[in-house]
From TrEMBL, chain A:
GO MF term (any one): hydrolase activity
Protein's name in the database: Effector of murein hydrolase
InterPro entries: CidB/LrgB
Chief place where the protein resides: membrane
UniProt xrefs under Pfam families: LrgB
Protein location: Membrane
TrEMBL record, chain B:
PANTHER family referenced in this protein's UniProt entry, alphabetically: HOLIN-LIKE PROTEIN CIDA (PTHR33931:SF2), HOLIN-LIKE PROTEIN CIDA-RELATED (PTHR33931)
Protein name: LrgA family protein
Coiled-coil annotated residue ranges, if any: none
Pfam families with a match to the protein in the record: LrgA
Main location: membrane
Compartments in which it is found: Cell membrane
Keyword tags: Cell membrane, Membrane, Transmembrane, Transmembrane helix
TM ranges: 25-44, 56-76, 82-105
Domain of life of the organism encoding this protein: Bacteria
Membrane topology per record: Multi-pass membrane protein
């Protein structure tokens, strides 16, 4: 009997357990998100994390083991990043007329977001790895977790910082647009996509199709520009940290 | 779906090949994304087949990501000393970025092409 129970308990050390826990948590998070009418505060990233964070210590599986169990899931981040070319391609068509200012805005905006995060963290005394984890915080997560490896940061921290950035950006957008008297849906969408990536894009669609399309474009371009620039620029930034 | 996945993995593989040949410091998947974008802009014959797999992966991106994010809490001892710097950089930093980026966009895009009416939904 004891042997059988031990056998059963060993089940938590298999990929099947980790993947099942991940899917159940995600399914639960989707349900909560739907019930909350897609409130940014109840984003699936945050809600899905809770059951995993509670269950893993209870069954005695540490984070490194869980990460190994779920390799199959994280592997899909690669093709998911490649997949971003598709919406980018679709949206490039819709904004051909304002492409030049859009590209300038992307480069400046990507720089502003990264520089502010890096500057604040550095000023408050965070070590180089933590600062490096925050540099890609305004870009979409699949690209961010790839790029963070070139800045010597932590993947977990980058993923979390990206999610919180998206949530804060989406929540702050309304008040900021009112404060600055923004009435142009293109600006609302582009700002949301640029600073708050996918979560901001979901918020932008509430302003309408046009805002959503501009947000999607900003998300793709900002991720691309940051991914292309950061690995080259970082060694130069890092020597001052 | 299978066609789409095949195309995505193939372009990621191309990215990997290119990186190994040139040793450019970029993630393979980002290079794959650029290559796929170029192929789509050049009207590659498979463009419609990418859509189902691309759509499904992007829709459920949170599922692919959050198992990495739980590390923040489960390895908190690594980060607790910098909690203040992290909180300020992420929360205040995002507010500042949003403010500055919106101002910049007003300068760059404001006044050009048909402005939409205040707060109206299209």
């Amino acid at each position: 009997m004891i042997d059988r129970l031990d056998n059963l308990a060993d089940l938590v050390h298999t990929p099947l357990f980790g993947i099942l826990l991940t899917l159940v948590s995600y399914r639960f998070a989707l349900w909560v998100y739907g019930r909350s009418n897609s409130l940014p505060l109840f984003h699936p990233f945050l809600v899905a994390s809770i059951p995993v964070i509670v269950v893993l210590p209870l069954v005695g599986v540490d984070y490194v083991e869980y990460r190994d169990q779920t390799t199959l899931i994280s592997f899909l981040l690669g093709p998911a990043t490649v997949a971003l070319a598709w919406p980018l391609y679709r949206q490039l068509h819709t904004v051909r007329s304002v492409l030049t200012p859009i590209l300038i805005a992307t480069v400046l905006g990507a720089f502003i977001s990264a520089a502010i995060a890096v500057g604040l963290a550095w000023w408050l005394g965070a070590p180089a790895e933590v600062v490096g984890s925050l540099a890609p915080k305004s870009i979409t997560t699949p690209i961010a977790v790839e790029v963070v490896q070139s800045t010597g940061g932590y993947v977990s921290l980058a993923a979390g910082a990206v999610a919180i950035t998206g949530i804060v950006g989406a929540l702050a957008a309304g008040p900021i647009f009112r404060l600055l008297r923004v009435t142009d849906d293109r600006i609302k969408g582009f700002a949301l996509g640029l600073v708050a990536h996918a979560i901001g894009t979901a918020r932008a669609f509430e302003y309408g199709e046009k805002a959503g399309a501009f947000a999607g474009l900003a998300l793709g371009l900002c991720g691309l520009v940051t991914a292309l620039a950061l690995p080259w620029l970082w060694p130069w930034v890092a020597q001052y940290l | 779906m299978i066609d789409g996945l095949l195309i995505l993995l193939f372009f990621q593989f191309l990215g990997e090949v290119l990186i190994r040949l040139t040793s450019i410091p970029l993630p393979a998947s980002v290079v794959g994304m650029v290559l796929l974008l170029l192929a789509l802009l050049l009207n590659a014959p498979f463009s419609q087949r990418v859509a189902p797999a691309a759509g499904a992966l992007i829709k459920h991106i949170s599922l692919l990501i959050f198992p990495l994010g739980v590390g923040i809490v489960l390895q908190w001892h690594r980060y607790e000393d910098y909690a203040l710097a992290l909180g300020v950089a992420v929360v205040l930093g995002t507010l500042l970025s949003m403010l500055l980026v919106t101002l910049m966009l007003k300068k760059l895009l404001g006044g050009k092409h048909g402005k939409s009416r205040g707060g109206s939904h299209d």
